[in-house]
Amino acid sequence: MSPETLLDQVVSPSSDAGVQTGKSPTDFETLRKKIFGSKSPKTPKNLKKKTPEVSASATEITDADLAKLFAGENWEEIAGLYFNARFGVTGWEGFNLTDGQKKTLGLSLASSMKMLLKIDPGYIALLIFTINFGGIITQKEMMYHNLKKEAGTRGT
Asked: Which residue in 124, 33, 118 sits closest to 75, CA to CA?
């Protein structure tokens, strides 16, 4: 029979499904000590240095600032990006959004961004990058499509 490994201690085939609330079937502190030793984690020296303090008012974001940022009109162009791109590629007027449609999409996206801010601000950064990336791809594809179309009309 093979000696018990660390994995065997964490994942037990005979673990009791009825573990009491607040008690873990695995003692993670003991496992941490077995893996890393009994020394407590050290803080790197560069994190111990004092950083200059910035006044709270300089970094404080007010509710008014957030209200301005998350106003629906600020998000209308982003929300309508797909439709603008489709209009650019096809030229079909039906892809142009009405003012009401832009407003609805802008308010919906603004509300979604507020929720993401509460969940994790990193999601907003990721979303903004993705939108910018997609927008640039779309712009380049439209330019290429138009060049290709012009070259085809010149050749006939």
From this structure: 124
List C-alpha distances in Å: 19 to 12, 16, 22, 137.
13, 6, 9, 52
Identify which has the larger pLDDT, 11 or 154: 154
For 66, the enclosing helix (H) or strand (E) is helix 63-69
Q: How does DSSP assign 34-53, residue by residue?
A: HHH-SSPPPPPHHHHS----
Q: Which residue has the tokens 């404080």?
A: 60
Query: Do 70 and 103 meet the contact criterion of CB atoms below 8 Å apart?
Result: no
- Taking the C-alpha atoms of residue 113 and residue 125, their distance in angstroms, rounded to an integer, is 10
Tell me if residue 14 falls in helix, strand or coil: coil
Is there a contact between 144 and 118 (Cβ–Cβ < 8 Å)? no
| Residue recorded with tokens 């079937």 | 25
Q: Rounded CA gap, 120 and 39, in Å?
A: 32
Q: Is the pTM of this model over 0.70?
A: no
DSSP one-letter code for 25:
S
Tell me the per-residue pLDDT of 63-119, one tens digit each, with 9 for 90 and over: 888 788 888 888 888 899 889 888 887 889 999 999 999 999 999 999 998 888 888
